[in-house]
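I have a small job for you when you get a moment. Would you make up a two-line entry for one protein for me to read? No commentary is needed, just the two lines. Write everything out right here, beneath this request.
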Amino acid sequence: MFARFARQIALSAMALLLPLLASTASAAAPADTLPRAVLWKIEKSGVPASYLFGTIHVGDPRVTTLSEPVSTAFANSEHVYTEVRMDFSMMMELAKTVIRPEGDLLSDHVDAAHFQKLLPQMQAREYPEIATRRLYTWAAAMLMMTPPRERGQLPLDLLLAKMSVEGGKDYQGFETIAEQLGLFASMPEDKQNAMLYALIDHPEDTVRQQAEAVDAYVARDFARLAKVTEQPDPGMSAADSAWFSQWLKGPLLLDRNHRFVERMQAPLTTGNAFIAIGAMHLPGKEGVINLLRKAGYTLTPVVDTPSTAASK
């Protein structure tokens, strides 16, 4: 029965980055030095050009209505890569990964007061109590990172996956779902609880932060986007905030930047690839753009303006 919730969980998994990039954003990614561009042309002598597209993992029409340059780059590509390949088998694997073994309940790992506050918030995200009780703590936190389910268009990454399959393109991912979720599953339990409690106690901050992040993304303003993600997490102790700062800077952001670039080499050698990863992976000394340049590629920003109609 829990498989029916796999899609929502999968979409929340793609929202890892923006709600969690706290005080590390400015240190790890000096976004003020990056041009206002989320689409970059990747070139190397003797190889057809590819494109790098920075995404934000939401379904806001201002985000999912692709600009003409992005649409053209996507249409002309033969290969499409997202952070993880989103398909039915991935969602089924994910559904199994986030559910505790029989007899092990979330309520055994969090305090009663927070568990009772969690239930209606999960219900608003279309997760009934029977499903919530079986979630791992980190999985419940991931689901709480996104506001109550958006209606209408699919989140951008899932939309690109759908377009790739329907368009008959070679569609792949750079990471497995096990690699993505392993970042959370390996977190000490007290840190999982601290993260979940902060999200439960301050749900309005998630909604506000996502709205501000979308506005910054639509403006192609990386400096503003970084400032949004720099906002401190209310309710966390100084010790927990410091721990998350190091975790975010290393495993969640910089380590994955290097992994992405290493795994991009094969599709970039072939060319005609459209690569879509979270926008905050792009900037910085150890950001994907700079790492690709160090690997011998020329990256050129492509100016694109989101649809005026979608922005209204």
In short: Residues 238-270 form the longest helix (33 residues). DSSP finds 17 helices and six strands in the chain. Residues 216 and 224 are 6 Å apart (CA to CA). Confidence is low (pLDDT under 50) at residues 1-29.
